[in-house]
Design brief:
alpha+beta; Calcium-transporting ATPase, cytoplasmic transduction domain A; 5 domains; seven-stranded mixed beta sheet; six-stranded antiparallel beta sheet; about 15% strand; elongated
C-alpha cells in the first residue's frame, strides 16, 4: 500500500498534456505533486532527455529526446517508482472537445436568454404598436442565430434519428424549439401581438444544461482494452545465427528465439530455454510473489523477468498471445456493458411518439373547430413546448451529477455514465483478494535495535516492492539511516553500505538464510527474519459487516492462504483462479439471475471487471483495471463501500421521483395547453418551473449517508 506523501497538501498539482511524438509511460503508483517533481527533476539529469512531463490525473509520463525507452524505465525505477512503457498511438489522448462545445453553446444560450427576457419585460409592461414591434424584432435578431447555433446538438441528433426511421427525445425537442422560433419570427414580421423568442431561448438553455450534465457523467470513461494493448512490448531482441538484433515484435514468428533482459516484459508467449527464471506473474494471478520457472516452462506475454536475462522460443504471437486474449475478453465485455440501456433512454422511447401525436391531434382539432390555422398552430406549439421533455431530460443527469460530486467528495471517482444505475441493481459481490481485500504487513521483531530498524527503513524506501512499502509503513515513525552504493536486484532484494558495513533486505534464499521469506542482514551477522502476513485492507471488515449483500472471494492465490484469509472474513472462496476462471464464475452467477459487483485491482481482474454488471477498483490498481472499473476508490480504505451502494440506490430513487415530478407536471399542464388556455410563453414558464423543481430535488442526494 502506497503511503500518502506530506507534499500532497503543500504542493499544487501539475497536469501537463504530452507533446506530440513524445514517448509515453504509465506511472501507476504516483499520487502527489512531490512525486511529479522527483520524477521530472530526476529525468532532467539523464543525458538525452530534452523534456519530461508528468500528468497526475492520467498517471502518465511524457518524455522528449533521443534516448532509448529502456533508459527511461531504468531511471524512473531507480527513483523508486513503478513504470510501464505505453504505445502513444494505441491511446486516445484527445481533449474533451465535445464538452467544451456544449459548454460554449450553453453560455451563448444563457446570455441570450437574459437579454431576450429583458426585452420581453418591456413588452409585458405595456409596450404597444411600433415600440412593441421593434422590441420583437430586436429579440428576433438575438434569438434566431442563438437558437440556430445553440440548438445544433438537438437538431443533429433528431436528423440522425429520423434518417433511420426512429423517434428519440431530440425530435420533439427540435420541433418545439424550431416551431416556437419560427412562429415568433412570423408574428414579429406580421406585426403580431405575441412573440415567444424568450420561450424558445430559455427552452434551449435548460435543455443544454441537461445535455451537458449527461455528457459530463460520460466523459471519464476510457477503454481498458486499449490500456492493455498499450502495455504490449513493441520491440524485442531476436537471436539469429548467434547474433542479437532488435526487431519489432510484429516481425516475430513462431519458433524464433528471443532474449529478454532483466526487468523487461516478455513480448510473446513462449517456452523457457534458460535453465531457470524468476518471473512476476501478477498479470495472470494478481499475486505479487515472484515465481520460479525451470527450463521448458510456458511463459506468457506480459510477464516480467525479475532475474537474470533469459531466452525463450516463441510459441504464440500476435492475436494468439495471452495478453491479446485478455484484451479481447475485456473489449467484448465492455461492448456488452455499453449496450446497457439507461433509464432516461427507456423513458424516451415511449415518450416521443406520444408527444408528436398529441401535438398533431391538437393542431387538427383546433383547426377543425376554429377554422383558423394560425390560432391552431399557436396552441399546438404551446402543447409541444409544455410537453417538451426538459424536466425529463434533466431527471437522470441532474441526480447523477449531484451523486458523482457527492461520491467524489467522499473519496470515490465515478467513471461510467450508467454506473450508478447498475450499482443500484447489484445483489451479489465478488472480491479479488490480494491488493483488494488484503494488504501485506511486515512485523518488526523486538530483536531489532533502533539502528537496525533505521537501516531496514532506508533499504525499504529504495524499493517499490509491496513488502518493502509495507515495511516502510511499519517503520514510518523513524528516521532512515544514511546509505551509500544502494543496489537493487530485481525480485531478490536491496543491498547497500552503511556505517555498520554491508546491509541487505530481501528474500531469505538471497541472503543465504534458512528461511524463505523477507529478511534483514546487517554486516556479517546472520539474517533476521521479518515475519510477513496478509491483513484486511483498512475498512474491509467494517464494510463487510454493513453491506447487506452476499459475497465471495475469487483469487489467483494458492488454496491454503486463500482459505485462511477467507475464514478470517467469513466469506466463501475460489482459489487458484485464472482470468478465464473469473469470467466463468461471473457468467455462472449471471445465469442464476445475479447482478454481480466485481471489486478487483490486478491485470488478471481486468476482464472480470469489464464483464461484471458493475465494477469497482482501488486507487492502487493498474491503469487497465481502473479503466475497466465503474468506480475508483481514491482513498485506500474500503470503509466507504456501503456509501457507494447507498448513493447508487438513492440515485435511482431520486431519478424515479424526478420522472414522477415531470409526469405530474404534464398531467396538470397538458390538458390546459390542449384546451387553449396556455400560450407558448406560459408553457415555457411552467416548463422552467418543472425543470428547476427537478434540479432542486436532485440535490437531496447530498444528504445520503
Amino acid at each position: 500500500m502506497t503511503a500518502a506523501c506530506p507534499a500532497c497538501v503543500a504542493l499544487p498539482e501539475a497536469d501537463v498534456a504530452p507533446s506530440a511524438g513524445a514517448m509515453q509511460f504509465s506511472l501507476p503508483t504516483i499520487h502527489c505533486a512531490a512525486c511529479i517533481q522527483k520524477i521530472e527533476r530526476g529525468l532532467a539529469k539523464v543525458r538525452g532527455v530534452r523534456a519530461a512531463r508528468v500528468n497526475l490525473s492520467l498517471k502518465r509520463l511524457s518524455v522528449d529526446g533521443g534516448i532509448a525507452p529502456d533508459a527511461i524505465l531504468k531511471a524512473v525505477t531507480d527513483l523508486g517508482f513503478e513504470i510501464y512503457a505505453l504505445d502513444a498511438a494505441a491511446l486516445e489522448m484527445a481533449t474533451d472537445k465535445a464538452g467544451r462545445d456544449l459548454l460554449m453553446r450553453l453560455a451563448v444560450a444563457g446570455f441570450a436568454m437574459m437579454n431576450v427576457m429583458l426585452l420581453s419585460v418591456a413588452v409585458w409592461s405595456g409596450a404597444e404598436g411600433a415600440t412593441r414591434d421593434v422590441f420583437h424584432l430586436i429579440s428576433a435578431a438575438i434569438a434566431v442565430p442563438v437558437v440556430a447555433y445553440s440548438g445544433q446538438p438537438f437538431f443533429r441528433n433528431a436528423i440522425i434519428s429520423l434518417r433511420v426511421g426512429r423517434l428519440n427525445m431530440d425530435v420533439p425537442i427540435s420541433l418545439a424549439i424550431i416551431l416556437a422560433t419560427g412562429m415568433s419570427l412570423f408574428e414579429s414580421l406580421q406585426g403580431g401581438e405575441h412573440a415567444y423568442f424568450d420561450a424558445a431561448v430559455s427552452l434551449t438553455f435548460f435543455l443544454l444544461i441537461g445535455r451537458y450534465l449527461d455528457h459530463h457523467t460520460r466523459s471519464a470513461a476510457r477503454s481498458a482494452a486499449k490500456e492493455l494493448t498499450a502495455l504490449e512490448v513493441h520491440t524485442c531482441t531476436r537471436i539469429k545465427n548467434d547474433a542479437h538484433e532488435t526487431v519489432p515484435t510484429t516481425d516475430i514468428r513462431v519458433g524464433d528465439q528471443l532474449l529478454v533482459p532483466s526487468g523487461a516484459r516478455i513480448p510473446v508467449d513462449g517456452a523457457l530455454l534458460t535453465d531457470t527464471a524468476l518471473l512476476d506473474r501478477s498479470f495472470l494471478t494478481g499475486e505479487s510473489e515472484a515465481v520460479d520457472a525451470t527450463q521448458g516452462a510456458a511463459l506468457q506475454a506480459g510477464e516480467i523477468n525479475l532475474g537474470a536475462p533469459i531466452t525463450l522460443r516463441a510459441t504464440a504471437i500476435g492475436e494468439d498471445t495471452t495478453l491479446r486474449r485478455v484484451a479481447s475478453l475485456v473489449e467484448t465485455a465492455e461492448n456488452g456493458r455499453n449496450s446497457y440501456t439507461a433509464l432516461a433512454d427507456r423513458a424516451a422511447r415511449a415518450y416521443a411518439p406520444v408527444v408528436h401525436l398529441l401535438a398533431l391531434f391538437t393542431l387538427l382539432g383546433w383547426w377543425a373547430i376554429s377554422g383558423d390555422f394560425r390560432h391552431a398552430l399557436n396552441i399546438a406549439i404551446a402543447v409541444l413546448i409544455i410537453t417538451c421533455p426538459c424536466a425529463l431530460g434533466l431527471a437522470v443527469p441532474a441526480v447523477t451529477t449531484a451523486a458523482i460530486s457527492r461520491l467524489f467528495n467522499a473519496g470515490f471517482l465515478v467513471k461510467h455514465a450508467t454506473a450508478l444505475e447498475r450499482l443500484a441493481e447489484v445483489d451479489h459481490i465478488v472480491f479479488d483478494k490480494t491488493g483488494t481485500l488484503s494488504m501485506p504487513t511486515v512485523t518488526v521483531p523486538p530483536s531489532l535495535d533502533e539502528d537496525e530498524q533505521r537501516i531496514a527503513l532506508a533499504l525499504a524506501q529504495h524499493s517499490n516492492h509491496p513488502l518493502s512499502r509495507a515495511l516502510a509503513a511499519a517503520l514510518a515513525d523513524l528516521k532512515p539511516a544514511l546509505l551509500t552504493n544502494v543496489q537493487e536486484t530485481p525480485g531478490q532484494g536491496v543491498q547497500a553500505v552503511s556505517t555498520l558495513g554491508r546491509v541487505a533486505l530481501g528474500r531469505g534464499g538471497w541472503l543465504q538464510a534458512e528461511f524463505t521469506g523477507l529478511g534483514l542482514q546487517v554486516g556479517n551477522d546472520a539474517a533476521i527474519a521479518l515475519p510477513t502476513t496478509e491483513t484486511p485492507r483498512g475498512g474491509a471488515l467494517e464494510a463487510l459487516e454493513t453491506i447487506d449483500l452476499p459475497g465471495e472471494i475469487v483469487t489467483g492465490d494458492a488454496q491454503k492462504p486463500a482459505m485462511a484469509f477467507a475464514q478470517l472474513l467469513d466469506l466463501p472462496v475460489l482459489a487458484q483462479a485464472t482470468p478465464d476462471d473469473k469470467i466463468e464464475r461471473l457468467k455462472h452467477l449471471e445465469l442464476e439471475g445475479k447482478h454481480v459487483l466485481m471489486i478487483g485491482d490486478g491485470l488478471n481482474d481486468t476482464a472480470a471487471l469489464a464483464s461484471a454488471h458493475a465494477a469497482i477498483a482501488p486507487s492502487t490498481a493498474l491503469d487497465a483495471s481502473r479503466s475497466a472499473a465503474d468506480v475508483v476508490l481514491i482513498k485506500d480504505s474500503l470503509a466507504g463501500l456501503p456509501l457507494i451502494l447507498a448513493v447508487a440506490r438513492a440515485t435511482r430513487r431520486l431519478s424515479q421521483q424526478n420522472f414522477g415530478i415531470a409526469t405530474a407536471y404534464n398531467i396538470v399542464a397538458v390538458p390546459l395547453a390542449v384546451a387553449g388556455f396556455a400560450t407558448p410563453l406560459a408553457a415555457a414558464l411552467s416548463m422552467s418551473i418543472s425543470s428547476i423543481t427537478v434540479l432542486l430535488n436532485a440535490q437531496r442526494i447530498r444528504k445520503v449517508t
